[in-house]
Design goal:
This protein has about 525 residues and is of the alpha/beta class. The chain has helices spanning about 15-30, 45-50, 85-95, 185-200, 220-230, 230-240, 260-275, 275-280, 290-305, 310-315, 335-340, 390, 405-410, 440-460, 470-485, 515-525; strands at about 5-15, 35, 105, 110-115, 120-125, 130-140, 160-165, 180, 200-205, 215, 335, 345-350, 355-360, 365, 370-375, 375-380, 395, 425, 465-470, 535. The mean pLDDT is about 95. It binds 3-acetylpyridine adenine dinucleotide. 3-acetylpyridine adenine dinucleotide binds near residues 54, 57, 380 and 383.
Length: about 525
């Protein structure tokens, strides 16, 4: 691909959906734009997360960019495509929009410093190159910093050990192996399903049972594809108005409008449709009302338990008492996760009862003194999410402030797009955006449109610097926190709030007012001439 320039108008960090979307539109506007990508290929999360079973949890209609000329000629073969097909989609985007000539792969940004005199960012790469740019746009996603717990002896294991988010590009053959999977979030669930059908033995180390929903996977034949295409334009428009950026949303009815039998039938229908439908077409009240939340959990628990033969496993995987409120953590989507525990080659260890004491050269030793031997250990232990992708880079703004210092104790932003002390620096699908609570392409398009229009506006007005006002940032951050407090997010220890990483400040990291409300705020801000920002 390209050799590195020394100066550009806009430098984008990351060649996932956001980076490609911004590159396409900014280049069309005549700007000199480059993308630096740490990975050896484009696709962002789908470059790094190529572990067995990895597939997206947004459906085919929603998991694509709305760029004209792209969607018309692309069809997925499955409703929930796997990582290989997603990479084909990215290659198709690259070919169709001719993006590669402005993308530098294997180019990790490690530092950036704002030059106040020039209103420019000076960006450094791991290989020692330096590039100056007027605008710096972080498109690093919410999951670009894997989290590996400090388990004693990790480095002593003589078999194969990988984090799901850093999976080797050449793959790992699970066939006939003894596999340990540590972690039962979306990544763990997917690996377990795959390993259960391929591996000799699968041992799942679970700390908190996940509340996984049925994926409702299906193939897309020509007829199904034609139907999706017919509704695609309408879908792109509608998804920006819903709570979670998908093409479906909550019922307007209250749980109390239904008799218990009707409620059950209603949920059975939602559950049979699969995906996030049971979460997002159900009652909005599950996010705030304990009784509504308890009821949905009980429905889920009883439905899942009916699929598991062993009573001990029923209680471990779908406990009588809910481990955390339904929807306070992102539910993984599963295809046969609960069924595979009926197989003789799949077993579970509850680390709350029998903790991992250390990793040994041969496997995993647990508190009961047993050494479990494995060929492969999969660390499905998640990410230093949302803020981590940026705080791991030495980004230094005005007055010597680094983004790490600023966000580590208390994350504050204006509109989830910029933050004080960091002029001309944008970020999308990250801190204080709808991020984790939204379908990716919906949120990043809304945010990227704001960034693109803002840069265009500045050029048209002859401006060189944009910076959020302190009081605007305080107001927006308060809104994020007030909205967050109305939900149940803090009642679960998850990456939504930073609670999954020991020592990380627990705080609201997502805008939880819904994508529709967020999109309106961005549009109004643009229409008002970027109220709350200082432009010069
Ligand atoms: O990470 P997670 P993930 N000992 O943080 C456990 C997206 N994604 O990679 O719950 C034992 O959800 C931890 O336990 P606990 C998706 O949005 C999408 O699975 O903290 N266990 C938990 O079970 C998803 O939500 C896709 O008690 C330990 C697990 O590790 C997000 O990424 C695919 C532990 C981490 O779960 C993150 O999902 C994959 C320890 N010391 C991911 N430390 C698709 O779209 C942590 N755990 C398909």
């Amino acid at each position: 691909m390209s050799t590195l320039p020394t100066k550009v108008d806009i430098l984008i960090v990351g060649a996932g959906f956001s980076g490609l979307y911004q590159l396409h539109y900014l280049r069309k506007l005549g700007f000199n734009v480059k993308v630096f990508e740490a990975g050896g290929g484009i696709g962002g999360t789908w470059y790094w997360n190529c572990y067995p079973g990895a597939r997206v949890d947004s459906d085919a209609t929603n998991y694509q960019l709305s760029i004209d000329g792209l969607w018309q000629n692309w069809s997925y073969s499955e409703y929930f495509p796997n990582w290989k097909e997603l990479r084909e989609y990215f290659a198709y985007i690259d070919r169709t929009l001719d993006l590669g000539r402005d993308i530098s792969l294997n180019t990790r940004v490690v530092a950036a410093e704002f030059d106040e005199a020039a209103d420019e960012w000076v960006v450094k790469t791991e290989k020692g190159d330096t590039v100056r740019c007027q605008f710096l746009s972080f498109c690093t996603g919410f999951a670009s910093k894997p989290y590996t717990p400090k388990i004693q002896g990790l480095e002593t294991f003589c078999g194969i050990i990988h984090h799901t988010g850093l999976w080797p590009q050449e793959g790992v053959d699970l066939r006939d192996k003894r596999v340990a999977v540590i972690g039962t979030g979306a990544s763990g669930v997917q690996v377990v399903q795959e390993a259960a059908s391929l591996s000799r033995q699968v041992t799942v180390f679970q700390r908190t049972p996940c509340i996984a929903l049925p994926m409702g996977q299906r193939g897309l034949d020509a007829d199904a594809t034609r139907k999706l295409k017919e509704g695609q334009l309408e879908a792109f428009d509608y998804r920006k108005k819903t709570f979670a950026g998908h093409t479906y949303s909550f019922t307007d009815r209250l749980p109390s409008d239904f008799s218990p039998d009707e409620r059950k039938k209603f949920y059975e229908q939602l559950y049979s449709r699969g995906g996030f439908v049971p979460l997002l077409c159900g009652f909005r009240e599950v996010f705030a009302d304990d009784a509504a939340n308890d009821w949905v959990y009980a429905f889920w628990r009883d439905t899942v338990r009916a699929r598991i033969n062993d009573p001990w496993l029923q209680e471990k995987l779908a406990p009588a008492v809910k481990p955390h409120p339904y929807a306070a953590k992102r539910p993984p989507l599963e295809q046969n996760y609960y069924d595979v525990f009926n197989q003789s080659n799949v077993s579970l260890i509850d680390v709350n009862e029998n903790d991992i004491t250390r990793i040994t050269p041969k496997g995993v030793q647990t508190a009961d003194g047993v050494e479990h031997e494995f060929d492969i250990i999969v660390l499905a232990t998640g990410f230093d999410a949302i803020t981590g992708g940026m705080t791991q880079i030495n980004i230094r703004g005005t007055e010597g402030v680094t983004i790490f210092d600023k966000w580590t104790t208390f994350a504050s932003t204006y509109l989830g797009l910029m933050t004080t002390n960091f002029p001309n620096m944008f970020f999308v699908y990250a801190t204080h955006g709808p991020t984790a609570l939204s379908n990716g392409p919906t949120a990043l398009e809304i945010q990227s449109d704001w960034v693109i229009h803002c840069i265009q506006y500045m050029r048209d007005q002859g401006l060189s610097r944009i910076h959020p006002k302190k009081e605007a940032e305080e107001r927006y951050t308060k809104l994020v926190n007030d909205l967050g407090d109305k939900g149940m997010w803090l009642k679960a220890k998850s990456w939504y709030t930073g609670a999954n990483v020991p020592g990380k400040t627990i705080q609201h990291l997502n805008f939880s007012g819904g994508v529709g409300m967020y999109a309106d705020m961005c549009r109004e801000n643009e229409a008002n001439g970027y109220e709350g920002f200082e432009l010069s």
